[in-house]
Structure to design on (78 residues):
């Protein structure tokens, strides 16, 4: 299990040792983004949890295959 990192920048998310930079100001309620990863939706939400708490937003995730790659699509729902 991955150890949560201290939240220094909520835009930087580490998932399976890969860093993703998410421009949260460009993700309004109802918008989504795709993370190419072998992580499960639960693992992705766990990695995004510090950012969602800090920004007071609610997220949902589903497994997807997009652009010929497996990954997780994350929606901002609140």
């Amino acid at each position: 299990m991955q150890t949560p990192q201290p939240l220094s920048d909520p835009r930087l998310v580490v998932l399976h040792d890969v860093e993703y930079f998410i421009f949260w100001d460009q993700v309004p309620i109802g918008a989504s983004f795709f993370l190419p990863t072998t992580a499960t939706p639960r693992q992705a939400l766990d990695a995004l949890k510090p950012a969602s708490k800090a920004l007071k937003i609610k997220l949902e995730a589903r497994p997807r295959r997009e652009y010929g790659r497996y990954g997780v699509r994350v929606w901002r729902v609140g």
Observations:
- The CA atoms of residues 49 and 59 lie 9 Å apart.
